[in-house]
Design brief:
mainly alpha, 72% helix, 113 residues
């Protein structure tokens, strides 16, 4: 569980959730999709930068950053995929399955050489 906590960028996910929470108040309504995508891009860019800043020298940074960025994408899909993706590409049940499966699978990745 401790390892999963290190691979899920909770601070960035929380920031993304906060940004996304303001989008429903954006007017006109036609702008909202763009602002959801803007929040996603901000989170996607901030995740590797934040993980690099938080990482310790001498640790396998690249795999940690890649897994954490993947975690952000999965969490963003689970939290707001209905606003980012058209039609049936987002399904609440599928989002839950992807979230749990990804979280379990990244636990098998060894981060130390």
């Amino acid at each position: 569980m401790e390892k999963l906590g290190k691979l899920i960028p909770a601070e960035v996910v929380a920031g993304y959730e906060m940004l996304s929470g303001f989008v429903p108040g954006v007017n006109p309504e036609s702008w909202r999709a763009g602002f959801y995508w803007l929040a996603f891009v901000i989170g996607l860019v901030c995740t590797p930068l934040y993980m690099l800043w938080q990482s310790e020298r001498g640790r396998p940074r690249a795999s940690h950053i890649a897994l954490s960025t993947g975690s952000f994408v999965v969490w963003a899909y689970a939290l707001s995929g209905m606003h980012l993706l058209p039609g049936n590409l987002y399904q609440e049940s599928l989002a839950g399955i992807v979230l749990v499966a990804y979280s379990l699978l990244i636990g098998f990745k060894k981060l130390r050489k």
